[in-house]
Amino acid sequence: MIKLVKYILLVSLFFYSLISISQSDLLFNNLNVNAIARNPAAIENNESINAYLGIHQQWIGFEDAPSMQWAHVSNFFDKRNMGISLNIINQSVGATLTQNIKLGYNYHIYVKGGHTLSLGLGAGLYFRKFDIAKLRFEENEQNIPTSIENEIHPDFDFGIEYSYQKLIIGMASNHITILNSKATLFKIPMQNHVYANYTFSPIKEISIAPGIGFFNSGTITSLGVSMDFLYADLFNAGICYRTGTSMIIRAGVKINSIFQFSYSYDMGAGSFTTYNSGVHEIVLIARFKKKSESFNSPRFID
User: Mean pLDDT throughout 13-33?
Assistant: First the structure.
């Protein structure tokens, strides 16, 4: 009986330390070129089939540190003012594994004067597994179970994006069917993203893109401000600061007419620098033109 009580206490403490990060999706550091990963309304209309592959590795050097891999493919049908997408995400945080597959749809409303309003919906499933065997206890208790618990749940997203010339404003809500009060280790609570960015060119071939982004999930909030610089649509470099947690440097290069590569490094900020041994994120983008010369539509946000 004493061993059972000790096991319950140990697991409870683990849940308390893990719950804030395991319930929430990891935040992208290259969201400036990867908004589609969270917002189904951000499907690009650039006469190309767009594919994204990404890797996010957090807290380098820590065992079972948070990590994420994702793949995304989208296509916009200009004659019908609509786009479709497929988004797959694999996320591991300690003893939890989350796998998400989702189809997305968006519709563009064009308003006279160059204004565009995009509405997006995402629907799919996520699988979440909790492996007790991955827990590390100070004492070797033979009676501690090593079972694996898992659940599958439906998943839905909603998003809006407004664009006018070089201005983009977007909002996305993920996992919209689960309120924070109903969240569990296996049920991801609703998470909200709001972002805006504006690109301007003070001199020829040089563009500057300031941006701002806000994230909220229950009591967890994050505000980010960023500044990116672009040269001739070939190179970009920038910095992003998330209040109290992250200082991110990032850069990207257009390899050729198809491939684009982006990298970011999170150095941590404030008290997080003590525990943060580096967060690396890589995104490879491929744009396969369909019928005419494709053009990029870079998104520079938090």
Answer: 64
